[in-house]
Amino acid sequence: MNDATDNRDPIIRFDKVVKRFGDHVVLDELDFEVQRGEKVTIIGPSGSGKSTVLRILMTLEEINGGVVYVGGEPLWHQRKGESLEPAGEQHLRQMRSHLGMVFQQFNLFPHMTVLRNLTEAPVQVLGVSKAEAKQRGMELLEMVGLTDQASKYPHQLSGGQQQRVGIARALAMRPKIMLFDEPTSALDPELVGEVLNVIRTLADEHDLTMLLVTHEMHFARQVSDRICFFDKGRIKEQGKPEEIFTAPKEERTKAFLKAVLDPDD
Amino acid sequence: MEWTSYLAPLSQGAWVTVQLTVYSTILGALCAFLFGLGKLSHNPLVKGISVAYIEIFRGTSLLVQLFWIYFALPIMGQAIGLDLRFPPVVAGVVALALNIGAYGAEVVRGAVQAVPKEQYEAATALNFTGRKRLWRITLPQAIPEMMPTFGNLAVQNLKDTALVSLISLGDMAFRAEQIRNFTQDSVTVYTLVLFMYFGMALVLTACMKLLERYVGRWRAAGR
Ligand SMILES: Nc1ncnc2c1ncn2[C@@H]1O[C@H](COP(=O)(O)OP(=O)(O)O)[C@@H](O)[C@H]1O
Ligand SMILES: [Mg+2]
Which locations, inside or outside the cell, does it occupy (chain B) (predicted)? Predict the structure, then answer.
C-alpha cells in the first residue's frame, strides 16, 4: 500500500462525465480521480454504475459528456489546437495500451491454450518475438501458480484457475493501470481465495495503479488505499478503508455495508 | 449391352462431377466468407453489394443463374464490347459457386454474430486491431460453428452439379442421359447413377466431418 494522495498526480480523472443508455442516465456528471500507484476499490449496489466506470476506461463504452483523462491525456477525445474532438481509433489504441482489464466471466479465448492466451496479444499487438512472449508468459504463469497448465485449454481449468489466467493475460501487455470488474463474483466460494491472493501480490507493486470493483469487503479493506461508495452513478462517500468500514457517514453507505456484511440479518 | 459397359463412361462423368463439386465448393466458400463478412461491414457500399448478392442468388433458381451466365452474359458482353463467353466448365463452376456462396454467406454471418460479445471486448481490451480481432479471435471460434451447415451445403452442391449437364458439360448426369438415349435402359442407368451420387455424398460428408473436427479440435481437448 502507498499513500499517494498527498502528492497529487492523477493517472485517472473523470471530469463531469455523463453516460446514458437511452434515457437512462447512468453517470451524471461524475468527478472521480485515481492517483498514480493508488489502489482504489469501488463498492456499491448493483446497477450503480461501477462496471460502467471501468468499461469507459477500457474504451468498451463511449461517454456522452465530460472528459476522461488517463495519464493527463483525454481518453475519448483528441486535442485539436485548443479544443477537443472525438477520438479516432488510432488515439484509442494508443490510450488502451496503458490499461488492462480482468472480467467477471474471465473471457479467455477458448480456442487457444493457456500459454497462447498470454502470448497472442504481445506477439500480434506489441510485436514481441514469439520466444520472448513465451518466456514472459511462463513467468506470469509462475506468478499465478499455473505453470503446469500452460498447454491446457481454458475449458479444462477450474474457474479460479481461469481467472488467474485472465489476470496474467492482462499483465502480459504490461499495463500501468489494472481494472478488475468483480473478478471473483463468478467463482465458487472455495476458489475465491486463490484469485484474491494473486490480486494481493499485485497490490504490493508500488507503480501499478489498481481500480477494483468487488463485494469482498474484507479483502477490499486489506488492499485498498481508498474505498469509493457508488450509489446511482455518483460517489456517495469515499475515504480510507478504516473510515468507510468502521465509521461511514452516509446512511446509504451504512445500509449497504450492513446488507453485504451481515446478509442474514 | 452389359451394365458393366456403362461403367467406363459413367466414371468419366463421375470424375467431372467430382471436379465440379470440389472447385465450386471451394470457390463458394470463398464467396461465403467474402460476402458474409461484407454483410457485417460498416461500409454501406460493401454491405449493400453483399446484401444484394445474397438476396439475388438465394432468390432465383440455380438453373436460371446457370443459363444466364452461359447464354445471356456473352450476348450482353458483346453489346458492350467484352468477350464474356466462358467454357461450360467455367460457367458451371461459377454458377454453382455463386449459388452455394449466397447460402454460405448467411451461415458465415450468423456464426460470426454468434461469437459472444465478451470475446470481442476481451480482444479490444488487449488492443487487437479490428482485422486481427476478426482473424485471430472471431473467425477461429465462428468457423467450427459453420461446419455442420457447410457440410450440408457441400452435399447440396454435389447434387446440384447434375444441372450443369444442361449446358452440355460431360458430368455424370450427362453421361447417364447419353447412355439412356442409346440403350433405352433407364432402370439400370439411373439406378447406377443414383448409387454413385449417394456414394459420393457419403465420401463428401466424411471429408467435411474430418474438416469439422480439425477446425474445432480445441473443443475436444481433454474430453
Ligand atoms: N448496455 C447497456 N444497455 C442499457 N443499459 C445498461 C447497459 N449496461 C449497463 N446498463 C445500465 O446501467 C446501469 C449501471 O450498470 P453497471 O455499470 O453495470 O452497474 P454495476 O456494475 O454497478 O452493477 C444499470 O442500471 C444497467 O442496467
Ligand atoms: Mg457490474
Answer: Cell inner membrane; Cell membrane
Given ligand 1 and candidates A18, A25, A26, A180, which is best to mutate, with the most ligand atoms within 8 Å of its CB?
A26
Three cell numbers, residue B35: 460476402
> A182-237, pLDDT tens digit by residue?
999 999 999 999 999 999 999 998 899 999 999 999 999 999 999 999 999 999 99
Contact A197, A191 (CB under 8 A): no
B170: confidence class by pLDDT, cuts 50, 70, 90: confident
Average pLDDT, chain A: 94
Q: What is the pLDDT of residue A4?
A: 45
State the distance from the centre of ligand 2 to the C-alpha of A3, rounded, in angstroms. Answer: 27
Position A228: which residue type?
C
Per DSSP, what are the bridge partners of residue B15?
none
Only one residue has cell 507503480, namely: A207
Delineate the domains of chain B, giving CATH numbers in brackets. Answer: 19-216 (1.10.3720.10)
Nearest to B128 among A99, A124, A155 (CB): A124
What is the four-CA torsion angle of A46, A50, A55, A61, rounded to 10 degrees? 70
The pLDDT of residue A86 is: 92
Inter-residue contact A108 to A154 (CB < 8 Å):
yes
- CB proximity B188 to A under 8 Å: no
Ligand in nearest proximity to the CA of A44: 1
What's the longest Cα–Cα distance across chain A?
A: 58
Subunit contact B124:A59, Cβ cutoff 8 A: yes
Beta carbons within 8 Å of A69's beta carbon, 6+ residues apart: A10, A12, A13, A15, A75
How do beta strands A99-102 and A177-181 pair? Answer: parallel
**Separation of A231 CA from ligand 1 center, angstroms?**
13
Q: Mean pLDDT over all residues of chain B?
A: 94
Q: Which residue CA neighbors atom 18 of ligand 1 most closely?
A: A51
State residue A265's pLDDT score. Answer: 58
B122, three cell numbers: 476481451
> For residues B151 and B207, is the Cβ–Cβ distance under 8 A?
no
pLDDT score at A61: 97
Rounded to the nearest angstrom, the gap between the alpha carbon of residue A190 and the centroid of all alpha carbons in its chain is 23
Residue B216: band (very low, low, confident or very high) from pLDDT cuts 50, 70, 90: very high
How far apart are the CA of A54 and the centre of ligand 1, in A?
Answer: 12
pLDDT tens per residue, range A180-189: 999 999 999 9
The mean per-residue pLDDT over the stretch A120-140 comes to 97
Of A60, A108, A153, which has the smallest distance from its Cβ to B221's Cβ? A153
Nearest to A133 by CA among A148, A146, A150: A150
C-alpha cell at position B214: 480439425
